[in-house]
Amino acid sequence: MFARMVALVIGSLLLGIGINGFLVPHHLLDGGIIGLALILHYYFDFQAGLWSALLSIPLIIYAWVKDRAQFHGSVYGMIMTAVFIDVLAPYQFSFPIWASAILGGAICGIGVGLMLRYKTSTGGTDLIAYFIAKSTTWRIGLIIASMDVLIVLIGYQTLGLQSVVFSSITILTAGVLANICYEGF
């Protein structure tokens, strides 16, 4: 239980740092629900953390029905991640876009993988990926990356080609590192 709570806090903190420190300064996207929340943030100036939590509610309800242990880790992870994203919003780093894409993806991927390894998540599409990976032979990182690419393509209209290209690098980096953290090498 203690290890799970530590993973939840550290994973959520890493997501808050990765998103705000590296992705937001260049209008890059993470994938999944957080990516949708970032699109809303860039387009309407909505709070990304709050909207990631609100958009995750249907998935959290699904977890309640299918896997109560995963529900508890996900609802707390969703809340903690939303808080860290919004609290850390003022903290941004000045790296070139390519470095921000790679570092942001690495930090977010490690955060997500750590949370999934200890049966917790942000409550977003990571939760969908967890349920799919649990019932199939598909690797969780590939599932996350596939869903995330779809979200980035949705952001193309708002953010343009440069954001899509570098956001794709972010997502692929995050998917690989999430998979490594979740399953090992």
From TrEMBL:
Stretches that traverse the bilayer: 31-61, 73-91, 97-116, 137-158, 164-182
Keywords noted in UniProt: Cell membrane, Membrane, Transmembrane, Transmembrane helix
Membrane-protein topology: Multi-pass membrane protein
Protein name per its UniProtKB record: YitT family protein
Superkingdom assignment: Bacteria
Main localization of the protein described in the UniProt heading: membrane
Recorded coiled-coil stretches: none
InterPro entries: UPF0750_membrane, YitT
Subcellular location: Cell membrane
Pfam families listed in its UniProt record: YitT_membrane (PF02588)
Native organism: Cytobacillus mangrovibacter
